[in-house]
Amino acid sequence: MAERLGSVPGVVLVSIAAAMWGLDGLIRKPLADSTSAYTIVFGEHVVLVLVTLPLLVPAMVALWRAGPAYVAAGVAVGAGASALATILFTKALFHGDFITVVVLQQVQPLIVVVGAWLVLGEQPRRGFIWFLLAALVGVWLISLPHPLEPHVHGLTPVAETLAAATLWAMGTVFGRFLSRRLRFEHVMTVRFAFGLVAAACVLPIVGAPAFAGFHDSVWIAVLALVTGLFALGLYYYGLQRTPALLASLGELAFPVTTTLVGIYVFDSSLRWTQWVGVALTVTVISLLPVRRRELVRLPAGEPALAT
Question: Among residues of the chain, what percentage have pLDDT more than 90?
């Protein structure tokens, strides 16, 4: 299995993982009626840490040996991208304005571009900007039935979504940084462990219960395993062979899946401009494996992308 995945370009695995995240709202949003965002995120991390418990000690040893910068990155990925960002995203969904969340979430690639340049030394080549602009236009068209009449509802979901997007963007950057010295399963385990600590610290501050009822706990476990463990396993396996700049574009498979879920599960419909957006975004993502070596200039000492 590992040999087969190893022959797949990393950006493809990142895109598959992001497409799986698009299924997240199917489970997460219905839970809003009976369970708080803080309880959901804590429950997810309990399940994830229990599943990866055999890897915890080796992962922490590897992180410590990598040095202080890697420890700080591990804490940032776990506490920031895994716990706080997920809480903020869940709370934004709870406000019910799905369009605001999806549209504003797409500032994430722009933040990754800056972070990857400053932290990782990755520089976009000339062709990258066209891929980025095309992808952002595609997502904009997908998210808005009337693309020339954008709208948002309330400052609270706007602030929550932008904060989540920033934390997730830096999670991509620091995750790529960690993958330089840690195995992908250790990066994932570190993320879950520090995420659990952060989520546990939040509970008494906001007065939220640690666990939900039996029914919701079952679905929280499903959420953790499908869009958490399995998707993030693919994601970090792909990220160790993918520049953060390319990963940020591959992650735009998320809004495409979210949109298709809305059509076939919630019986919604798309205007023609939204179908154009789907086609444009899918085209950009499908071209990434072919054009990946032409889009990013890697820093000295970084292995070249596979042909």
Answer: 34
- The per-residue pLDDT for 3 is 56
Q: In whole angstroms, give the CA distance from residue 60 to residue 53.
A: 11
- Residue 295: both structure tokens together: 């889009």
Predicted confidence band at 100 (pLDDT cuts at 50, 70, 90)?
low
pTM greater than 0.90: no
Report the C-alpha gap between 70 and 76 in whole angstroms.
Answer: 10
In order of 103, 167, 258, 260, the CA distances from 107 in angstroms are 8, 11, 17, 21
- H or E segment at 124? strand 123-124
pLDDT (tens digit, 9 = 90+) per residue, 185-237? 999 999 999 999 999 999 999 898 988 888 889 999 998 998 889 999 999 99
What CA–CA distance (Å, rounded) separates 225 from 231? 8
Measured on CA atoms in the order 179, 76, 115, 18, is the torsion positive or negative?
A: positive
CB atoms closer than 10 angstroms to residue 211? 13
Q: Across-strand partners of 124?
A: 296
Distance CA 271, CA 145 (A): 6
Residues 42-58: tens digit of each pLDDT: 999 999 999 999 999 99
Closest Cα to residue 109, out of 9, 280, 253? 253
Whether 224 and 43 have beta carbons less than 8 Å apart is answered as yes
pLDDT the model gives residue 307:
40
User: Where does residue 268 rank: exposed (0-12), middle (13-18), buried (19+ CB within 10 A)?
Assistant: exposed
How far is Cα 140 from Cα 36, in angstroms, rounded to an integer?
30
Q: What is the maximum span of the chain, computed from C-alpha positions, in angstroms?
A: 53
- Three-state SS sequence of 91-105: HHHHCCCHHHHHHHH
* CA 281, chain centre distance (Å): 17
